[in-house]
Amino acid sequence: MKATYPITLLCDVLGVSRSGYFAWAGGRRARRESRDVQLTTCIHAAFADSRQTYGYPRLTDELRARGERVGKTRVARLMRSAGLQGRQQRRFRPRTTQSDHDGPIAPNRLAQLAVTACDQVWQTDITYVETAEGWLYLAVVMDAFSRRILGWGFSQTLETDFVLAALFMAIRRRGGRCAEGLILHSDRGVQYASARFREALSAHQVFASMSRRGNCYDNAKAEAFFSTLKLEFIYRHRFGTRRDAQAAIFEWIEAFYNLRRRHSALANTSPVDFENQLN
Question: What is the pTM of this model?
Fold first, then answer.
């Protein structure tokens, strides 16, 4: 109440000495400043472990997981003081879809479907990475519920082989068989409409689903993953060779994104931790 009443009056009413009050107040400030120094050290370490990508909400959860009792407001203040800033998301539009083809178009099976469990819906998509040698193309298969990347494949061209490699890796990761009724959703790209890809889906009893023409939001989760990959990793590195890029992206997906990166849609847990909590 010192903003409303004189300190002398408050001390008299509470029966404490002015010197005792100021000693107590000074000690509290000193303890808070000391705690700020300690937390700032922890924040620097956690921020580095996030590969310099976490903002204050995810960093707060990371600190709490490490045993620190701290609030988001304090973490935000200390991050500003330390000059630390998480990577900000921005809209990402892929340019790899080749939908001008004569292949069959699967119906959009996601339109009226709520995804409520793992292995109910997988989503797949393609993006590109620039290297000094030329473009490297990446295909992924994601579990739409846990956001885990189950399979991935690389290629120097946009032939169908690398999307098949991503699909087969996802199937192996789930024990070599697909859940009954599994839907694999993609855009209308020529790779996903190819006879080889459709035959692979049929052989594993997977139902194909494709986005509406010109509507990227149907496959938004896979595209959001690519946005995260580009913003948090790709745009911060230069790759001399395709092999360098492939090794680095593999490490980012398997050692960081799947295992450790806190995902806001999963209550700030990683995809693997989220799946483990369901078991």
Answer: 0.77
